Amino acid sequence: MTLLAVEGLRKSFDGVHAVAGVSFRLQAGEMLALIGPNGAGKSTCFNLLNGQLRPDAGRVLLDGTDITGRQPRQIWRLGVGRSFQVASVFASMTVIENLQTALIAQAGQVFRFGRPADGYFRAEAAALLRLVGMAEQGGQAAGVLAYGDVKRLELALALANDPRLLLMDEPTAGMAPAERGALMALVRRIARERGTAVLFTEHDMEIVFSSADRILVMDRGRLIAEGDAASVRADPRVRAVYLGEP
Amino acid sequence: MDFVFVQLLTGLSSAAALFLVASGLTIIFGVTRVVNFAHGSLCMLGAYIGWSVLRLLPRDPSGFVFGVLLAAAATGAIGLAIEIGLLRRVYRAPELLQLLLTFAVLLILQDVTQMVWGAADLTLPRPLWLRAFVRIGDARIARYDLYPIAIGPLVLGLLWLLMRRTRFGMLVRAATENRQMVAALGVNEKILFSAVFALGAALAGLGGALSLPGGSANLQIDLSVVVEAFVVVVVGGMGSLPGAFLASVLIGVLQAFGIVLLPKITLVLVFSVMALVLAIRPQGLFGRRAASAAPAEVFTLIRPASAAVKWFGLAALIVAAVAPFFVGPYWVSVLTEAAISVLFAASLHFAMGPGGMPSFGHAAWFGIGAYAAGLGLRIFALPMEAGMALAPLAAGLVAALFAACVVRLSGVYLAMLTLALAQIVWAGASQLVDLTGGDNGILGVRPAAWATNPKVFYWLALALCVGAALVLRGVLFAPFGYALRAARDRPLRAEAIGLDAVRLRLVALTISGAAAGLSGGVFAYAKGSVFPTYIAVGKSVDALLMVLLGGVQTMAGPIVGAIAYTGLFDALLLATDFWRLALGLLIVVLVLVFPSGIAGMAGRLR
Ligand SMILES: Nc1ncnc2c1ncn2[C@@H]1O[C@H](COP(=O)(O)OP(=O)(O)OP(=O)(O)O)[C@@H](O)[C@H]1O
Ligand SMILES: [Mg+2]
């Protein structure tokens, strides 16, 4: 079943064509990697998909519904979770409070002014922490976590609304190699078990080839190749972009 | 026709003076990103120094030019000293601390100027060559009113040459447009920033000295000039010279006609234009939209009070409640003010700390609350209970309307717009004499019969104000408070988990305004009167100081800060005539040595 359909997406900044006509489809339960050199337009793609940026042209369809140009918070409501390239968590809160905030937002209980938020969704938040392997760290300040833990918390935040589609911009950047594999294995398991579709970028090719079902290669705003690990590895245009081969 | 022409010339003349000061302010902001609250003080110094120098020089054109340039150079040197001694240390600090530090400079310079030159206005006899009149049609215009019209464009031209034709100018433009680039060019930032600050100060000094023939050197220049210059800079776009020029002309001419046509609401007119421009073009006429917001601030972890702190708080509350049995009437009145201050500070902290919306005009809500109570009594003969209920309602309503227009703005612009609103309310309060009694205020705002005993009123104030402050605290630990803080910590992340930052901030400003309004209402009955001074800039700064003294990043901060500040301020007033100097030095120490405030320090020691 096609969960996400992207058609002719375009975005330019002051004449720089960051995304210059990108189309692809993503199935439920599929792990799709979007790779490309620095500045290829990958993050811009994510920002267009979750509504942080408005495309100049093109459409984004989520399960058949046109979500182009909607606000990020509306798109989250429709079941899209995302993590950021530069990890961003709420530094004035503890790890578990970060998740409680996301769960409170998910439940539409933000405009409550009385009972302390501390008592909201403790069990659910703890379950998310267990899922990403941070069960012991709920009481720590989110602002001083090790980088790998910040990335895990990011993932837990993105999972707080039990998303149908997970957008992950460099989910393992800055992590130790062993941690990376474990995190992506976890994401893969979630995709399989829950039927979540995952779109992710990653600079570590090992990780890409081992965890993606399918790979999109992007360069200067355009998709230049698409396929499984073997075919992408063999594609001459990809080799040219990545290895400078003619 | 003549009338229009004469007013136009008058307007252009004051526009030129405005431009001199505003150009310095905008250049400094463009390069250093510091909003210099002391800029009006530099202008004031220019006027005083000019007075001292010109008195000794021959009263001919060349003597005048020489004296004015000398005053500008001296002011530039003072600016340089201020930059090297103080500002240089806070370029990486949060905006608000920078503003506060420059406000301290304003306070210090105010008292120092008074020590050196005395409190009386100083005027120069106008030299003959400036006294002549020029005939234009049927109108006669004095030369001293005309010559600034030539100087404004002249200075603009010189600055333009400086910016376009010299290496210094190129660096200034590069720094204004892209900070990283300057570092990349391998320029010594320190020297560049110092030079820019000195240039800006010299321009302010020039403006001050040039205003002498038409006016006087007086101690009111600092605040009046800096507020006008702010308006010009914000309307023109922060950092833009042509913007400052255009906005000066706009504001100058508007004022010239406003004074004749609508004398009562000139200020309202000026600030409304600013609000309008910002609502349509948040970055000002010629300003650039900041590529991305200021460097992310580092937010510290916020924890609910520990058991020890809760017991301490309870003990303090009990002490406060029984205090009237042990102290005299003077201390009861001080305690009443302290209780009111606690709520006033807590309400500002609510918006500024967890809400991330700094405010330089928080007194607006306080004043609206006080006037709601006062006017309710005067017009509808409302009893005290109703007056105190009306105060937060009125302030909350205005705050909600205001918030709906401005919550999308960020940082410095938002702070300046609240200042603008406070100035409008202040102007309204002092100029709409028929309604508000003007500067004579509204008198006879007496508490209800059961609360006329000062002790009883104190208990009422304590219950209302400390109670409301505790409610605010509770809200910050409720889901709303978490969401508000999330939207401040990481706006994009917050949106990506479904939070509506704009709505959160709107509600937060409304709550903050209503709470401040309540404190204003209680204050009106505590004092028995309502005056425009309740809305003056100084009152807003009081609130800021209380919050910063306590520590903006802590939840107990505003309460501790309000009590400490009220005690300190009373002690200062009793101990010295030069309380501004003392307060200014205190702020300097606070900002440079204890930027996290008392509660922040205590938290770290534990
Ligand atoms: N907000 C913006 N304003 C101007 N230009 C932008 C903006 N965001 C991205 N760009 C430009 O668009 C292009 C694509 O950037 P993008 O961040 O999408 O690349 P990326 O593939 O994610 O790179 P990386 O691997 O380094 O993260 C770059 O040239 C970048 O400079
Ligand atoms: Mg990227």
Gist of the model:
The complex is a heterodimer of chains A (246) and B (606). With 246 residues, chain A is of the alpha/beta class.
Structure description:
- The complex is a heterodimer of chains A (246) and B (606).
- Chain A has 246 residues and is of the alpha/beta class.
- Chain A folds into two domains: 1-71 and 197-246, Rossmann fold; 89-146, no CATH class.
- Chain A has helices at residues 42-49, 72-77, 95-106, 122-131, 147-159, 177-194, 205-211, 229-234, 236-243; strands spanning 2-13, 16-27, 31-35, 57-62, 65-66, 80-83, 165-168, 197-201, 214-219, 222-227.
- In chain A, the strands form two sheets. In chain A, strands 6-7-8-3-9-10 form a six-stranded mixed beta sheet, sandwiched between helices. In chain A, strands 2-1-4-5 form a four-stranded antiparallel beta sheet, with helices on one face.
- In chain A, β1 (2-13) and β2 (16-27) form a beta hairpin.
- In chain A, α3 (95-106) crosses α4.
- Chain A is globular and about 60 Å long.
- With 606 residues, chain B is mostly helical.
- Chain B is built from 26 helices and four strands.
- In chain B, the strands form two sheets. A two-stranded antiparallel sheet of chain B has the order 1-2. In chain B, strands 3-4 form a two-stranded antiparallel ribbon.
- In chain B, α14 packs across α23 (537-550) and α23 packs across α24.
- The longest helix of chain B has 31 residues, at 2-32.
- Chain B is globular.
- The chains are: A alpha/beta (246), B mainly alpha (606).
- The interface between A and B is large, with 43 and 33 residues.
- Residues 13, 16, 18, 36, 38-44, 85 of chain A line the site of adenosine-5'-triphosphate.
